[in-house]
Amino acid sequence: MDFLTILQVLDSTIRLATPLLLACLAGLFSERAGIFDIGLEGKMLAAAFFSAAVAYMTGSVWLGLLAGIAASMALSALHGIASITFQGNQLISGVAINFLAAGMTVLIAQDWFSQGGRTPSLTGAGRFNSITLPFAESLQSVPILGPIYHDLISGHTILVYVAFLMVPLTWWILFRTRFGLRLRAVGENPAAVDTAGVSVVGLRFAAVGICGILCGVAGAYLATALQAGFVKDMSAGRGYIALAALIFAKWRPWYALMSTMLFGFLQAIALRPDLIQNTIGVKVQVQLLDALPYILTVIILAGFVGKAIPPRAGGEPYVKER
Amino acid sequence: MSGTAPAIELKGISKAFGPVQANKDISIRVMPGTIHGIIGENGAGKSTLMSILYGFYKADKGEVFINGTKTEIPDSQAAIAAGIGMVFQHFKLVENFTVVENVILGAEDGAMLTPSIAKARKSLKQLAEEYELNVDPDAKIEDLSVGHQQRVEILKALYRQADILILDEPTGVLTPAEADHLFRILDNLRNEGKTIILITHKLREIMEYTDTVSVMRQGEMTATVKTAETSPEQLAELMVGRKVLLRVDKKPAAPGDVVLSVKDLKVTDGAGVERVKGISFDIRAGEIYGIAGVAGNGQSELMEVLGGMRTGTGTISLNGEPVDLTGKYSDGQSRRARGISHVPEDRHDEGLILDYTAWENTIFGYHRDPKWSSGPLMNNAAIIQEAEAKMQRFDVRPPIPTLKAKSFSGGNQQKIVLAREIEKNPDLLLVGQPTRGVDIGAIEFIHQEIIRLRDEGKAILLVSVELDEIRSLSDRIAVMFDGKIMGERDPETTDERELGLMMAGISEEPDKPAWKAVEENLEAVEHGEAPKHG
Amino acid sequence: MDKMPAWADVVLIPIISLILAGILSTLVILAIGENPLEAYKLMIEGALMRSAGWGYTLYYATNFMFTGLAVSVAFHARMFNIGGEGQAMLGGLGVALACLFIPWPHWSLAILGSSIGAALFGAAWALIPAYLQAKRGSHIVITTIMFNFIAAALLNYLLVGLLKPAGAMDPATAKFPEPTHLPTFQDMFATAETPLFRGAPANVSFFLALLACLLVWLLIWRTKLGYEIRAFGYSQSGAKYAGISGVKTIIIAMLISGGLAGMMAVNTTQGEAERLILNMTEGAGFIGIAVALMGRNHPFGVLLAAILFGFLYQGGAELALWTSIPRELIVVIQALVILFTGALDNMVRMPLEKLFLALRKKEA
């Protein structure tokens, strides 16, 4: 493998890891506050559809992004009502949301566009286009660093940079602000927060809301940046993979960056069976490559890569004791 | 001081949870600068009343006056604003946060953490000096002893400028010496003019430390008196509504052969911490061997390993035959087959399946007994019939086997567990916290049943954190501290003071005040050093 | 004291939840510009008014009984098995291998063999997630979902490669031999004078599903194993106290669950398609979740809920045929049922409990 091919693979790693990273950070906010969210998948899917649909109809990808975030937030609100207000089972609520998104997106897509459950292709301002960072062209000739800067760091859509900036921002919010302290506390021991005179319900809804925004961006990225339009079930298990990455990351922002990069890398090489064949000299079944991220998820969950302790109050509705 | 308004005045407070009337028309006045006790049985409504005062529940009826001003307390925020602080029985601390993080939680100055923490550190230092409330501000809660965790709770309240401090059963988890320290802190606070409400079911604490006391029974306030003008007997009668025996009647024990022999038993928990550090003892037929100690010193792990819920190392034998401590035959089923019955410490999470009916619970753990099956199917009719008989014999109320276990009161739930375990006629009965959360009437019954089993020549291992219970039931008392047995004492010749010191891990050192030695020892334990034994 | 009578818990709450889901579905149909009344009429006519419609309804119900039972057995052990879909695919593989490679003399023997094959393969696919949950605490919800994806990849690999007959175009196995073909309802009940269930896929495996309902009921409420599964589900620490092995209970419950999900393939693969095709599950594994929740994890409830979903599925197919409403409507309804009977249970329950409490106070 030559240097440029490696750069290509890493470049597509970044593109494929971005939605995982956004979803993983979304899950991080929610789970750190004690709300498990299996519904990342559904929220991304709904956001993907509405961002593509609105971007197509208005011609503005920014309006599309807002629509995607709104759709994802609506499902977040549903999850919040079920699991916070009515103290329902968070897993079941998440599963319901995933089905709701899977069904509604196709139903509405068919009603609006009659193209078999997809949106028309997006072009021009209906998509997020790649940004060339300053001096990328002029520095391209610098050995090693030039191509890295030009091919790998420059040339992504704005959402990629947003996702990467979210990592330090998330860290800062969690560990350096009052909101972060309270958010972490409510995921560990909501009774402590409640008796300290802070609203558990308010904090958890805030966390679920942030989760909705980030899933919205992740979904919009899928349909308006990674691809040019919505197709049925296009989230393809990314929400679940993000959850596994979150466990792998032990609910920490910087680790989340690393674990989603790993999954992104696997997805990137799954797209290049030719490279694998050249490297290891054996033809690998394309189905095996497709299944690779899922198999890795299981391996990571099996704890072969270290034990993780989830937030202590995670998954349990907060009921004042009698 | 007739002109001073009471610090707290409640007028006609009522509160119902569904069909249960937890508080009925309760009125109370507490003067500033006093310690006011509230005493009553489990379920008398003490905690509900205080939760209303702390804004945790909303009263259905009634008014609250703080320093003479009518005050609405819709939530904890309002209670804190009104100068009320509360130390709950189960601490409300974030375990993996530091002390200072716990203290500022909800009382931060501004949106950034760093300045808040700096400010809190300064005032923690001040408070520590003022009230003997020393805690390392950067220690994690999970690394602190229970006594120190409680101090953090008090610091939380004081940091929020509380003038009124409510403590709910504060000594349940403390050694006598730690409790003494707590009451010295409370004394200091009272001398600074703070008002303290002490909720407890321990008559001794009320008599020794309070200025006034209110008695609650079945949601009602039955009396409020000056402590100096009452007696323990009178308070007990007010609590229960009838005269109660405060002592258990029993004949001297007639010990027979050794039933259980434990040698060099060690137990390590899931986190790799050694909880039982090589203990040895024997229990004979016809005696009750009581283990005293503060919760968390290895007693639970000892019970669990004997009951087959954990693995351990060392040797155990029952009637001379070895008992497996690991492997296939070390589980609860095997223990039961060997004639060991087990009344676990936690009946809600272990002894009962709360969502199972009473009859299903009467075979829990013995459900594989061929007696209850015909072919591959269980013989439900026979089980129900047997359950009915058991419930009659143990006076379980209501005696309806098809009712779910969660519908019974604490005392009746415990009777269901006891009926199941005692009726098996075991050689060895393990009993953990037999009367925790049980009303006084049922306590008498349960104690009598345990003694009856002893008199039938069975061996009984009793673990309890209630020193009074240990002293009145046991024929021999062992004290556990930090995973080891500190020594055995005869209940006739020992006293509370001696046992209390042993519970803190020390024997007497005459030239040092006892609490000082305890302090040093606890500090040593916290810092991972081996505790000193005097 | 229970807050409300048992019948309200078992009957009233599911019905109210169902009505709520129905109202929302009506709104969805309105929103996409169709007439809900017309739609419901079409559904009822297509699914219930003709014997052939019933033949489809009961065919789908057979699938949902198996997957619904699968989810509910796991639920009793507090395991959320979302892997019914993948376990059913593997079950299909078991059926295909049994039917293709063993020369059965008669369908009555073949159905025994294929049932065992389906159950074994389905159980095997549940084993790894079960083991990982029991031994290493890996979240079974995520692992079973991953195993759905992996099963799809595996089936894809086998059906475009090893198991595809030479020269065939579509990804499927060869047609199963004649003696393995199961009698349909038409074969069983139609006579020359009264043609019944014409062309409908309902077949003898419907009775297999009924038998499974009965056996699961006996297992859960009448055997020691069922007692242990439920006890473990209610309280893990309690189970430990009673000497009930958590690892064993999780694994056994999940094996039974996976086996039941796998047996769905007897109906679809042997009974209907008579060969193994790629999309043999048609989402039935997921519908099992809604069926189990709706049926309150009781086999009789599962039976009723399965028939209801069979009706919805067949009705949905009719809608897709005659109107512009796509089949995904059923996914939406399924989501709403899961939402109302599962996650929003308290929304219905809390007001009802208050109501019954008020009624009781009035009586007293």
Automatic annotation (TrEMBL), chain A:
Query: What is the membrane topology here?
Result: Multi-pass membrane protein
Does the keyword Disulfide bond belong to this entry? no
Pfam families registered for this protein in UniProt:
BPD_transp_2
What keywords sit in the KW lines? Cell membrane, Membrane, Transmembrane, Transmembrane helix
Q: Name one GO cellular component term.
A: plasma membrane
Kindly list the residue ranges recorded as spanning the membrane: 12-30, 42-59, 91-113, 153-174, 254-271, 291-310
Which compartment or compartments is the protein found in? Answer: Cell membrane
Q: Which domain of life is it from?
A: Bacteria
Note whether Transmembrane occurs among the keywords: yes
Q: Which GO terms describe its molecular function?
A: transmembrane transporter activity
> CDD domains from the entry?
TM_PBP1_transp_TpRbsC_like
Quote the protein name from its UniProt record. Sugar ABC transporter permease
Native organism is: Pseudooceanicola atlanticus
UniProtKB/TrEMBL annotation, chain B:
For this record, an example GO cellular component is: plasma membrane
Please list the residue ranges annotated as the ABC transporter domain: 8-243, 260-507
Q: Any idea where this protein resides? A: Cell membrane
Q: Which Gene3D superfamilies match?
A: P-loop containing nucleotide triphosphate hydrolases
GO MF term list = ATP binding; ATP hydrolysis activity
- Specify the superkingdom: Bacteria
Which Pfam families does this chain map to?
A: ABC_tran
SUPFAM superfamilies (alphabetical): P-loop containing nucleoside triphosphate hydrolases (SSF52540)
- Provide the alphabetized UniProt keywords: ATP-binding, Cell membrane, Membrane, Nucleotide-binding, Repeat, Sugar transport, Translocase, Transport
**Transmembrane stretches, start-end:** none
Q: How does it sit in the membrane?
A: Peripheral membrane protein
Per the record, the similarity remark reads: Belongs to the ABC transporter superfamily.
Q: What is this protein called?
A: Heme ABC transporter ATP-binding protein
From TrEMBL, chain C:
One Gene Ontology molecular-function label: transmembrane transporter activity
Q: Where are the transmembrane segments?
A: 12-33, 53-75, 87-104, 110-128, 140-160, 204-221, 241-264, 276-295, 302-323, 329-348
Q: Where in the cell is it found?
A: Cell membrane
Give the main localization category: membrane
Key words, A-Z: Cell membrane, Membrane, Transmembrane, Transmembrane helix
Q: Which CDD domains does the entry mention?
A: TM_PBP1_transp_TpRbsC_like
Record's protein name: Sugar ABC transporter permease
Q: What would be one Gene Ontology cellular-component term for the protein? A: plasma membrane
Which source organism does the UniProt entry give? Pseudooceanicola atlanticus
Membrane topology, from the record: Multi-pass membrane protein
